[in-house]
Input
Amino acid sequence: MNTNIIIDYLLIFGGIVVWGLLLPKERKVPHTVTEGFAVFGGAFLLASCFINLVPHLFAHGFATPVHHVKIGVAVLVGFLIQLLLEFATHGVEHGHDHCKHNDENEDEDKNTHIHKHLHEHNEKHTHPVVGLLIGLSIHAFMEGMPLVDTDGIVHQSLLYGIILHNIPIAIVLVGLFMNNGYSRLKSVLLLSIFAVMTPLGSLCNIYAVSSNETVQALIMGVVVGILLHVSVSILFDEEHKRLTWWKLALIVIAFTAAYFTPGCPEIYG
Output
């Protein structure tokens, strides 16, 4: 394993754990900050899927109709996997928590689906952390599997997308751990479990899974399905769907950044 891959793993790990170290226990992260990270990361993931990851699926000779169908099915499987995972994660992958809290008035504005952001509350809310952490760990493990190609090349667009996507997740997790009464040390340790899962998924794929191109294409297809679900959910979520000029600007910048991010050398050189 070369040094660049190890550095990339450390970037993913550090990009999550740093929030457990930097955020003061009682500080509330401004809503616009987490929303901005979520929108930018979601747009970057969406663009990366179509600009880099999907072309990669067809770059190794998967040109027959049979392989097209297999890859399409893999994408749908990934989409369904993410749907199932959200029963445990309650949408934390979107950069906020969708679970209902005890103080929520269900009769309040029935025509509006209300999402309660942890950092917007003065009250302390608890959350079943074990199930949440398991769901997020599975999500992180799977999206890390195709991070490093069989020839040792890191998919840069996927790497940057994961790092950006993990920022709002880490911020929400810190708030959840603190609101559950966990100490700073325990919160950082729990964050570390989530942070290490993406590198572990990549290592598992490198050393324990067949390097057969068809197998790797199917794995990438599943991950593309997961990322498409997450990115579309972020951009069309009730919390983010009201389009403003700054959100539109973030989306355009994210699309542009994804376009110029190195990716799929088999096609683009």
Notes: The mean pLDDT is 79. The chain has one domain: 3-23+34-100+116-263. The two ends are 23 Å apart (CA to CA). The first helix runs from residue 3 to 22.
